[in-house]
Amino acid sequence: MELISKLIQEDINNNSTLKKLYSEQGTKLDLAIVLVNLRKDIGWSKTQLAKKLSIPRTIIEMIENGDILPTMTFLRLLAYVT
Q: How many distinct structural domains can be found in the chain?
């Protein structure tokens, strides 16, 4: 992990615009891990959670894959369902 952190820092030092991109990606992955763990703690599949939230399963998949950040609407729905 230390090597990855060093490489990321070198990238940022060489290109300052990467700092924001790395930060955003880190946030996406952090939230993805939280959602996966929450869903598994509850014992629901992606399909079950999507049905409970009345959203497409693909949204759950994209958040859990770190492709997108959850919206505030999603987070509110999640808070009320769990």
A: 1
Check which CATH number belongs to the domain holding 80 and give it.
Answer: 1.10.260.40
Amino acid at 12: I
CA distance 13 to 42: 42
**What is d(CA 78, CA 82) in angstroms, rounded to the nearest whole number?**
6
Residue appearing with tokens 């509110």: 76
30-39, pLDDT tens digit by residue? Answer: 889 999 999 9
Q: What is the pTM of this model?
A: 0.74
d(CA 36, CA 2): 25
Domain encompassing residue 64:
31-82
